[in-house]
Amino acid sequence: MTDATDQRLAAQYEAYPYPARDPREEAKRLVVGSPSHLREVDHWIFGARRPASTPLRALAAGGGTGDGAIMLAQHLAWAGRPGEVVWLDRSAAARRIAEARAAARKLPNIRFVEGSLLELPESGLGPFDYIDCCGVLHHLPDPLAGLRALTGALAPRGGIGLMVYAPHGRTGVYMMQDALRLLAPAAEPPPARVEIARRLWKQAPETAWLRKNPWLTDHTAGGDAGLYDLLLNPRDTAFTVPALDELVRAAGLRIACLVEPVRYDPDSYLTDPRLRARTAALDPVGRAALAEAVTGNMGIHIAYCVSADEAEAPPRWDDPESVPVLREMDGAALARGLPPGGVLPVAFDGLRVPLPLPRLAAAILGRVDGRRPFGAIADELAANGVPREAFWRDLGALRRAMESMNRLLLAAPP
Ligand SMILES: C[S@@+](CC[C@H](N)C(=O)[O-])C[C@H]1O[C@@H](n2cnc3c(N)ncnc32)[C@H](O)[C@@H]1O
Which terminus of the chain, N or C, has fewer Cβ atoms within 10 Å? Predict the structure, then answer.
C-alpha cells in the first residue's frame, strides 16, 4: 500500500540517499552501531545459544546506504562465520552507495535486492534468522503492515532489530517540520526545499526548541541528506515506549531488549526509596515508559524483538562454559583504566548514570577476551586466591553494570 506521501518519501531517498556516505571512507573505518552489531544479535536475539558455525541468514530491510548491512556482513566476515546479508531497499541511489561500500570492503557475503519490504511475502526472499529494520518503520504509511511483512519473513527462533523515532528527544523537530511545510511545500523539488530549510535554520530565533535540543545533529552535520531526513521528511511518526510495545505485540513479537537497558531503568537515577517503592510496582513497559518520560532525551528507541510465542531463552550468565565478550571495548585496557572507588561514570546523551562496579571488576574484565569461558576465568582467579563464590557473586554485579550498558555480553557458542 502506498500513497502520495509515500511516493514523495521514495523520491526523497532517490535525491538524498540516507545517510550520506562516501565509499572511500571504508578504507578508514567501519561504521558501527545498534541495532545489528553481531555481538548484540548473538546475545539479545539468540541468548548466546545459537552456534557461530550455523549460517546466519540476515536481511537489512530498508538498508539505505548500507550502515547496518555492511557492519553485519563485515562482522561475519572478520569472524569467519558463514551466512549472508541481504540488503533490501527501494532506493536505487542508496543501492549504488551501499554496493560501492561492500565492494570497497570486498565483502563476499552481501547481496543487493531493490524492492519494497512490503512485498517481502511474495518476494521469495527469506526466511531470515535476523532482520535489521533501522529507521524505516516510522516512515511507512502503515508501520504495523511493514512490521508484519518482516515478521512473516522470519525463520523459527529468529528475531528483529528495530530502530524507531521517539518523541521527547526529538523536541523541536516537529515544530520545524510544521514551519517548513508552510515555507517549502512538499510539492516543490527537493533541492529548493533544502535551500529554504537552510535559510530558515539560519534565522530561526533562539526560542526555537530545536535550537535548545543538543541531541540532534542531522540538520547541522548530516549534509543535505541529514537535513532533509530530519526537517523535510514527508512522514515520520515517533513512538513512545508503550506505542512501540503495542506495535511489536500486534505483529506477534515481544521486546527482548531496549538498548541500552540501563537508560530504560528508572532506578538507575531515581534513588529516593519512596520513588523506588513505586517504580518497583511498575511492569517492564511501565518502567521504560517512566524512564522515557522523566529523562526526556530519547530521540530513538532501539529494540531487539523475538517471537512472542517462543519460550524465553536468556543468556546463561551462570554457566561456566559461557564466554563473555566486550562490545567495542578492550578488556585489558578497560581493566587498567577503571576508576578507583569502583564507580564507572557513564553518560547517555547527557544522562549521567553512575554504575557501581564490584571489587573483582578489573580482575574479571582484564581476562575477557572473547575466548576464555567463565570457568577458566574463575580457575585463574582461584589460583590467585580468589574464592569461587566471590567470582560468581562479583560477576553478577559486573553483569548488572555492564550488560545493562550493552557492553559486556555473551558470545555465540562455537
Ligand atoms: C532513514 S533511511 C534508513 C537507512 C538505513 N536503514 C540506516 O539506518 O542507515 C530509510 C530507508 O528506508 C527505505 N524505505 C522506505 N520505505 C521502504 C519500503 N517500503 N521498502 C523498502 N525500503 C523502504 C528508504 O528508501 C531509505 O533508504
Answer: C
Distances (CA, A) of 359 to 28, 160, 277, 407: 38, 36, 28, 18
What confidence tens digit (pLDDT) does each residue in 115-161 have? 999 999 999 999 999 999 999 999 999 999 999 999 999 999 999 99
Binding site membership of 62 for ligand 1 (Cβ less than 6 Å): yes
List, in sequence order, every residue forming a beta bridge with 111; answer none if it has no partner: 86
Whether the CB of 394 sits within 6 Å of ligand 1: no
Is residue 74 pLDDT above 80, yes or no?
yes
From CA 40, how far away is CA 310, in angstroms rounded? Answer: 19
Compute the distance from residue 45 Cα to the ligand 1 centre, in Å. 22
| Closest ligand 1 atom to 117 CA | 20
Torsion 253-407-313-270 (CA) sign: negative
What b/e readout covers 39-61, taking b as 16+ CB neighbours within 10 angstroms? bbbbbbbbbbbbebeeebbbbbb
- Is residue 138 within 6 Å of ligand 1 at its C-beta? no
Q: Is the CB of 47 under 6 A from ligand 1?
A: no
Q: How confident is the prediction for the chain on average, in pLDDT?
A: 96
CA of 141 to the centre of ligand 1 (A): 13
What was the pLDDT predicted at 375? 98
In this structure, is the dihedral angle defined by the CA atoms of residues 113, 117, 122 and 126, taken in order, positive or negative?
Answer: positive
Alpha carbon 189 to its chain centroid, in Å, reads: 32
pLDDT (0 to 100) of residue 1? 58
Cα separation, 76 vs 130, in Å, equals 13
